[in-house]
Write a structure and sequence with these properties.
Chain A: One of its GO terms (biological process) is iron-sulfur cluster assembly. Chain A: This is FeS assembly protein SufD. Chain A: Residues 169-392 form the SUF system FeS cluster assembly SufBD core domain. The structure holds 2 protein chains of 2 kinds. Chain A is 21% helix and 39% strand. Chain A is α/β, with parallel strands linked by helices. Chain A has a domain at 2-262. In chain B, 41% of the residues lie in helices and 29% in strands. In chain B, strands 6-9-10-3-11-12 form a 6-stranded mixed beta sheet, with helices on both faces. A 4-stranded antiparallel beta sheet of chain B has the order 2-1-4-5. In chain B, helix 7 runs parallel beside helix 8. The two termini of chain B are 28 Å apart. The chains are: A alpha/beta, B alpha/beta.
């Protein structure tokens, strides 16, 4: 196993070791990779659904930034400010308001203290070997700070594109978002690309007291690509984190979302949908650490799997001893539209407090023939009837996106997927 | 008198010939013959288990029901060779006895998809959601269907009356040639029955036919049929004018069941 990971260390590893401000973080990550490896029991359990042998094709080639890319055109309607990362490097930034500080992580000379204090503070690289790899190897990316009480009216679009061209590459983009007390922002993270590559991305969010962030992620990587993401948040008291992750891309994707709710009355909502076809492997791993009392967490994932797609959902809620009055809800529902699809659901609760309200569950289902007939009896084709019902199924989760414009955009992406991937012949009975 | 009635009609919309059908291998329909002309309203009455529902299944193309013998022509086309959606687009409409709940599908989306399915086949421009709300509103209001109800998930949390009004609204929007009303009166109080019947009556026209399926004569006070058929044991046992419904109400189905057996 460890050889797999060493294999993934890009040859520009030296760069990060040279950056003085990154020094200790880098050294710990290298140690974590070399010491714990995949052999730790907990670690092996967390990665047991992911076929790490499939990573062997990757040569340790550093990604180099290439073309300027643009967001998929349906985002044009959104009046947003944009940041573009290409092959791991920040290549474009719009003009941001004065209350937003931006820092290009390729800059190795000097970093502001808000950055050095925050970077790496929300993740444990011991438990996440790919985040450790990212930490040792990221050659670029972006850190941003939204200052105290600033309310960002325009959403931020962060486009992360990876172009492998003829080579096989590993990109390690790094993103840090710091919200000071009372700051408000919507961030849309879009992952696209073409070719065979690993996009090994780490996004850290440090959310201050009373701050509010909508963080919406769209993963539409090339279907030959690997998407390994760590999305870690540290939430202070009374903050609100509203997250939605929609995945349609990548041959293998593993989207890990974790948070520490480290102050009272935090509202943490992570919802999402994975839409898998052909032989895609789509994995969602979530971990919510209720560290302080009276926090609310809400998690609804809805998956749709067709052809030979595989879904994995591992969700864990930890409620610490003093986190009384915790309210936690976690649900993974999957719609299985062919005999050959596979889903692994592993919901877990670990509760040490005695006055909490927590529930979790997992369901699998298929489309209802009565509903299909009802739609067809009104003249709607079987294919369209199925697409309408699958869309409705997924929209139950999408409707948790607070920002209505963004909700519409995600609905549209999902509905485009339905039009392309839902046919009238898929049937759980194999017709 | 019957002969006179039939002679008045110059075009047969639906022609059912000697239909035998089974559900789960059990024969239910045992030779149904029925001819319905344009502009006519026929009622089918019958006791539980007589085959009324199975007849609607055969007409609308439910997979659960297997036709073993006979033919049906609709507007000159072979109905049995058509898929349920093709039948609907050809002008067949079933107002369901138990309208299905569609969680997450709004009434507006449902109706718009249905209208657009027809437009697509006709090669017409598809209608967008804003435009569509305007199209629906006046018809919806006359049936007491509010904007709020249109935006809700289809039939989810609807009362019996709301579900049936919603069915009639769909009928009004889709303007079918032939409507099957399957126990539309079930679950309705008198006021709701009046609203629904007014809705149905406003859709009566010289080129639209209806088949009203009911247990009770009551509905036929509101929607007056041209002909009434009594269905029992999978066959039409008797056909008459609307006075037949009154006789049934007074004497029950028992006579027909005995003669059939």
């Amino acid at each position: 196993m460890p050889s797999n990971k060493k294999h993934l260390l890009p040859n520009n590893i030296q760069e990060n070791s040279e950056a003085e401000w990154l020094g200790s973080l880098f050294r710990k990550a290298v140690e974590d990779i070399e010491r714990s490896g995949m052999q730790g029991t907990m670690l092996a359990e967390a990665w047991r659904f992911t076929d790490l042998n499939s990573f062997k094709v990757f040569e340790p080639i550093a990604a180099t930034n290439t073309a300027v890319v643009s967001c998929p055109k349906f985002f044009a309607e959104l009046d947003a400010v944009e940041l573009h990362i290409s092959n791991g490097a920040l290549i474009w930034k719009d003009t941001f308001p004065e209350y937003v500080d931006l820092f290009d992580l390729a800059d190795r000379k000097i970093a502001p203290s808000w950055l050095t204090e925050a970077l790496g503070s929300a993740i444990n690289t011991e438990m996440h070997p790919f985040a450790a790899i990212n930490t040792t190897a990221f050659s670029g990316g972006v850190a941003m700070r939204i200052r105290k009480d600033a309310v960002m009216k325009k959403p931020i679009i962060l486009l992360v594109d990876t172009q492998a061209n003829d080579k096989i590459i590993v990109a390690n983009p790094r993103v840090l978002v710091v919200l000071e007390e009372g700051a408000v922002v919507d961030l849309i993270e879009v992952h696209t690309g073409s070719g065979i590559y690993i996009n090994n991305v780490v996004t850290e969010l440090i959310i201050g007291k009373n701050a509010r962030i909508g963080h919406y992620k769209l993963q539409t990587e090339d279907t030959d690509a690997f998407h390994i993401a760590m999305n870690a948040a540290h939430c202070a008291a009374n903050s609100i984190y509203d997250n939605f992750a929609l995945s349609t891309g990548a041959k293998l994707s593993r989207n890990e979302i974790s948070a520490t709710l480290d102050g009272i009355h935090t509202k943490y909502s992570i919802n999402g949908s994975y839409l898998g076809c052909s032989d895609q492997h789509m994995e969602t791993v979530t971990f919510i650490d209720h560290a302080k009392p009276s926090c609310v967490s809400h998690e609804l994932y809805k998956g749709v799997l067709v052809n030979h797609a595989q879904g994995v959902f591992q969700g864990k809620i930890l409620v610490r001893k003093n986190a009384q009055k915790t309210n936690g809800y976690q649900m993974n529902r999957a719609l299985l539209l062919s005999k050959e699809v596979k889903i692994n659901s592993k919901p877990e609760l670990e509760i040490y407090a005695d006055d909490v309200m927590c529930s979790h569950g997992a369901t699998v289902g298929e489309l209802d023939e009565e509903q299909i007939f009802y739609l067809m009896a009104r003249g709607i084709s079987k294919k369209q009837a199925r697409a309408i019902l699958v869309s409705a199924y997924v929209e139950e989760a999408i409707n948790y996106i607070n920002n209505l414009l963004i909700r519409d955009l995600f609905t549209m992406v999902a509905s485009n997927w339905m039009q392309q991937n839902i046919t009238d012949t898929q049937d759980i009975n194999g017709s | 008198m019957l002969v006179d009635l039939i002679e008045e009609c110059n075009m047969t919309l639906l022609e059912i010939e000697n239909i035998h059908a089974e559900v789960d291998g059990r024969p239910i329909l045992r030779g149904i013959n029925l001819s319905i002309e344009a502009g006519r309203i026929h009622a089918i009455m019958g006791p539980n288990g007589s085959g009324k529902s199975t007849l609607t299944y055969v007409l609308t193309g439910r997979e659960s029901c297997k036709v073993t013998q006979g033919s049906i022509s609709f507007c000159g086309r072979d109905l049995l060779s058509m898929e349920p959606d093709e039948r609907a687009i050809a002008g067949l409409f079933l107002a369901m006895q138990y309208p299905v709940e569609l969680p997450g599908v709004s009434g507006l989306t449902f109706l718009r998809e249905a209208v657009n399915a027809r437009r697509k086949v006709a090669g017409e421009e598809l209608v967008d959601s804003m435009e569509f709300l305007k199209m629906v509103r006046s018809k919806a209001n006359s049936l007491g269907v509010s904007d709020e109800m249109l935006k809700r998930s289809v039939n989810v949390g609807f009362s019996g009356g709301e579900k049936k009004r919603n069915e009639i609204l769909q009928m009004a929007m889709l303007e079918p040639r032939f409507c099957i009303l399957d126990e539309t009166d079930s679950g309705l109080d008198i006021d709701a029955l009046k609203v629904v019947s007014d809705g149905v009556n406003s859709l009566r026209s010289s080129d639209r036919s209806m088949l009203v399926i009911t247990h009770y004569q009551r509905l036929l006070d509101y929607i007056e049929p041209d002909l009434v058929h009594v269905l029992a044991h999978g066959r039409i046992q008797k056909t008459g004018g609307k006075e037949l419904a009154l006789q049934l109400e007074q004497r029950g189905y028992i006579n027909f069941i005995e003669t059939a057996a």
